[in-house]
Specification:
By secondary structure, the protein is an all-alpha fold. It has ten helices and two strands, in the order H-H-H-H-H-H-E-E-H-H-H-H.
């Protein structure tokens, strides 16, 4: 790779090539049923292959880019600490957000921040009386870890962030994690990649968790903490939608229509962003 010795150029080339490959796959999936049925697996392969190939060309190992469980204790401690702090705050913000945008007589501008047809199904805090997860929760959890969290964390926080911090070393650190231009750029590229899937600008909101995941990668030297929090957050969002929206509760009877299924899977709260198809979530 001619840009191997130039970290910024190398990172951008790998990023651009991966985005183009995913966009081609996404377009081809509309024409090829096999691709459509296995799109997530192909996107996962892209996120694994491109950093692997780039690292091998440099004569390095993926372990040098955080693809390791070590340090196990520090990684799990950071993941657990973040979840304990973020999840309760997010729950309050999630309900407050929908109570605001779904309030009767709300302006069209604010009401448009919720997916169409969603607000009349919102239960408010009453939904918390019957918390729910999907009947296929463990299958979802495995998918979130293997197909979504680990590949994305390896690509965006393992390889991309490492190269960007090579180009722009962090000038400040917080609890050991670098805070600087490299972290911001990696989070921005993470957000843009999500938008390229279906050009929904709400997906730019994943910039914020991108900052958090990147900081954890820098603080621990591993993608473990980010992968745990990434997967847990997606599962948490899904559980919140099933709990606080009326039609999500009907899944066990398989009564939901196709539009309702789409709404139930949609993550509209701006602090974390919308969930996408394939491996971009």
């Amino acid at each position: 790779m001619p840009f191997a010795g130039r970290p910024l150029a190398s990172a951008l080339v790998v990023y651009a090539a991966s985005c183009v490959a995913i966009m081609v796959l996404w377009a081809a999936a509309a024409l090829v049923p096999f691709l459509a049925a296995n799109l997530g697996a192909f996107v996962t392969l892209i996120f694994l292959y491109f950093p692997y190939a780039a690292v091998r060309r440099r004569g390095e190992d993926l372990g040098d880019y955080g693809f390791s469980l070590r340090p196990l204790g520090r990684g799990l401690a950071f993941a657990g600490g973040v979840l304990v702090v973020i999840f309760p705050l997010f729950l309050v913000g999630f309900v407050a957000y929908y109570r605001t945008v779904c309030a009767p007589g709300q302006t069209e501008t604010l009401a448009a921040l919720a997916p169409p047809g969603l607000c009349h199904r919102f239960l408010g805090w009453a939904g918390l009386a019957h918390p729910r997860v999907g009947i296929d929760f463990w299958e979802q959890a495995l998918t979130q870890v293997v197909v979504v969290a680990v590949p994305e964390e390896l690509f965006f926080r393992g390889y991309l962030l490492a190269r960007l911090e090579e180009a722009f070393p962090p000038r400040r650190r917080f609890l050991g994690g670098g805070v600087g231009l490299g972290l911001v750029l990696a989070a921005a590229l993470f957000a843009v990649a999500h938008v390229l899937v279906d050009f929904d600008p709400r997906r730019l909101a994943v910039f914020f968790p991108g900052l958090l995941f990147g900081w954890m990668r820098s603080a621990t030297g591993s993608i473990l903490a980010g992968s745990v929090v990434h997967a847990a957050s997606n599962l948490y969002i899904d559980a919140l939608h099933r709990t606080f929206f009326r039609w999500c509760a009907r899944e066990d009877n398989h009564e939901r229509s196709r539009p309702e299924t789409t709404f139930c899977a949609f993550m509209a709260f701006p602090a974390w962003g919308a969930r996408g198809g394939g491996g971009l979530r």
